[in-house]
């Protein structure tokens, strides 16, 4: 689940972040604000809107149902969509700061050498922005593992299918099984700490995890 | 038949408007220097030619090709223009080796061809030993050569250089100036080079374009522009040491007599009938002598009192009063021989062709 989210975020986030770091368009701040929304929005609000958008009553949900024969909410795919949206800022912001750290002149030099914009992205921008890209991947991976509200809204709580670690903790507490809850929470805490420590430790010298702007 | 670079365009910024006006036959071996003070728009002109900036108006043509035409919405990308661009700080790819940098733009060649071409360039630019190193391990001079080799790898039709020596410290800059001249002459590509350094323009350039406030003021062979600035603004930019207002009193047989301050000078008459002129004399054209013995070919010979001697390397700058302020460049041994110090009166000699007249309006 986290791996899928990270992969989808990579596919969506890289072009978006590259565009954000390169564009001189004045309306750029609007896109930045939209991308950052999930940070401040309660996950239930986001989950609610996603549920509405992909539910059987929306055009999107109907299209999906007619194509694949089943509904999106309370499935793995539905959960994936919500989770991608929810973790978007955690991927896009480090990606963007990674690309912003690449000297624009290196890209211009590449264009002047006759290399297309797309190939320049692969051969210059991406290799030089890799600390930011890696940071974004790790952060979104870790963030997806710990998410709760969105999952509860979209995924429901189906064992082996849409149950995430945080939901199983919630279940355990509800069942007054504190020992199990403690165990699972500790695992999650240690995992998150380890991931973040490794990320920050690796890139201390290369790049800030958060853009300073 | 050489291609000609013809450009006439306007690029607007919130605080400045840059007008690029060029008409340069792009000859092999010819280095054209775009010279002017910092911030006058030289780099913008270069970036517009490369396709890295888009002007609002005008056209850029190279030979029979149109690179840019605002009216017809033609805009070739940098990739389509077939140019080489050397950036101010060289912009070498830090994650690639020297060989990787040089071969970077040769993607359309076969691997074997590419290796051969890279090898050839590394040899020519004396970088074979550094082939596997990364740019951060190179000296300033090596970085410059690597950037040149990379820009020339795919045989561009025009080479653009933006302040190629300004990333280096002063001592190295002087040393590399001569080297760069040889490298550029050997690369057999027309070169357009931007600089704000007067020495650089003199050493590197064949043709000079003087720019200020976003406008090209004068174009011509380097020495012509330095010796005969078209107007007072150009004279200031190329830093003619002596630029004094004068008045033409009489003209006969191609020679003009000009009144400058309380002195009279003889210079070559210009075609303009204006009597108000700027008199421009290069400091190195002023010869100082202790006694009055004068060789016949020198038309101007007059007493001048030393006001101050400013030591410099290699030439000292001597400030004189000859009825008008006059600056002369003198070697240090000559300074000692003539015993130049404030208060001493010497004879100043200036040949008539060195007295250049620039029309002065108002």
Short précis:
With 213 residues, chain A is mostly helical. Chain A is built from ten helices and no strands. In chain B, the strands form four sheets. In chain B, strands 7-8-9-3-10-11 form a six-stranded mixed sheet, sandwiched between helices. Chain B has a five-stranded antiparallel sheet with strand order 2-1-4-5-6, with helices on one face.
The beta-strand count of chain A equals: 0
Helix content of chain A: over 70%
Q: Could you say which overall geometry of chain A the principal axes of the C-alpha atoms support? A: globular
Q: Give the N-terminus to C-terminus distance of chain B in angstroms.
A: 45 Å
**How far apart, in Å, are the first and last alpha carbons of chain A?**
32 Å
Query: Strand fraction band of chain B?
Result: 35-45%
Q: What value does the average pLDDT of chain A take?
A: 76
Spatial sequence of strands, sheet with the most strands of chain B: 7-8-9-3-10-11
Q: Give average pLDDT of chain B, whole number.
A: 85
Classification by helices and strands of chain A: mainly alpha
Tell me what the structure shows.
The complex is a heterodimer of chains A (213) and B (362). By secondary structure, chain A is mainly alpha-helical. Chain A is built from ten helices and no strands. Chain A has helices at 2-22, 28-40, 43-54, 59-68, 76-100, 104-112, 117-145, 149-154, 165-174, 178-203. In chain A, 35% of the residues are buried. A six-stranded mixed β-sheet of chain B has the order 7-8-9-3-10-11, with helices on both faces. The radius of gyration of chain B is 24 Å and the shape is globular.
Please render the helix and strand layout as text.
The complex is a heterodimer of chains A (213) and B (362).
Chain A: H1 2-22, H2 28-40, H3 43-54, H4 59-68, H5 76-100, H6 104-112, H7 117-145, H8 149-154, H9 165-174, H10 178-203
Helix pairs in contact in A: 1-5, 1-7, 2-5, 3-5, 5-7, 6-7, 7-10, 9-10
Chain B: E1 3-12, E2 17-26, E3 31-35, H1 42-50, E4 57-62, E5 65-69, E6 74-75, H2 78-81, E7 83-86, H3 98-102, H4 111-124, H5 140-152, E8 158-162, H6 170-186, E9 191-195, H7 198-204, E10 207-212, E11 215-221, H8 222-227, H9 232-237, E12 242-252, E13 255-260, E14 263-268, E15 276-281, E16 287-289, E17 300-310, E18 315-321, E19 325-331, H10 332-337, E20 345-350, E21 356-359
Parallel strand pairs in B: 3-9, 3-10, 7-8, 8-9
Antiparallel strand pairs in B: 1-2, 1-4, 4-5, 5-6, 10-11, 12-13, 12-15, 13-14, 15-21, 16-20, 17-18, 17-20, 18-19
